[in-house]
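Sync notes, pocket subgroup
Present: LS, DG
LS reminded everyone that the earlier model was apo-only. Rerun requested with 1,3-dihydroxyacetonephosphate included. Inputs:
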Amino acid sequence: MPLVPLQRILGKARSDGYAVGYFEAWDACSLEAVLTAAEEEAAPVVLGFGAMMVDGTWLDGGGIEVLGAIGRSYAEKSAVDVALLFNEAHSLEQARHGIDAGFNAVMIDTHSWQTDDAIVAVKELCRVAHQSGVAVEGELGSPAEATASGVDHSHASLTDPDEAARFVERTAVDCLAVSVGNVHIMMDREASIDMERLRSIHQRVDVPLVIHGGTSFPPAAVVQAIALGVAKFNVGTVLKHAFWDGLESSVRSVGTNPEVHQLLGSHKESDVMGVAQQRMTTKVRSLIRQYGGSGRHVVAAELSAR
Ligand code: 13P
């Protein structure tokens, strides 16, 4: 199925009162796990890859093109509505490469930039991207980040609602990631969400809102967040843990003298990646249900008529 514009996927989620997940993958195996989950739930989904944890030299040396090619080939065989996001590019240049590589949505990680610098770069990205029918996600504010020793608030800043309105108006982004107490990469507890701030942003900003740090977003707050304009949750860390746990248990169960051709790359039941993928698929399915996305797939033609 051809890629569906992110704006349409998010617009329908907003109008019908649910959210979609961007379940961050890192290779073909993990992307397949996400797509399987979305197809099993008959749910629209944002597929894609993020740059934040990936070596910049690898990305710049052809990695973005490889990721784009993997993403497009899975999207084309998808049975559900899919957008393909290149998330948190390190620079404007990388986001532009993402467009050339076939992603239909791009984002620059500007969380540590001065707002005015971010506006200049993101506005330029929107100009280029919109000419090719590609969506741009902006970001204003910086979520705190979990580290081995606790939550690091030193670079965190909450999104100011008036600044958010100015940012959206100046850049023309299609959706906006906000910082309202959400925390990145946190596994051991739930974040505490400032719903009043989210409400104020929603009152001033028209475009769909995005929450990064989906791993620690409190399930009990999902419905209210959706009512306050959130149309996409970005999830990463918990999915890598699910995959890792599955991989570890299947590798542990292999005895001495491993049958490497059966264990690696066979795509048979014996493939060690199978259990890892299954664990990730199960987690993605439960999050899709939590966001109210199950059964929301509609044929692309119907979607474009909306
Ligand atoms: P988590 O890893 O905290 O789920 O956040 C992922 C994310 O925000 C990717 O953009």
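DG: Residues 224 and 257 are 53 Å apart (CA to CA).
LS: The chain has a mean pLDDT of 95.
Action: DG to write up.
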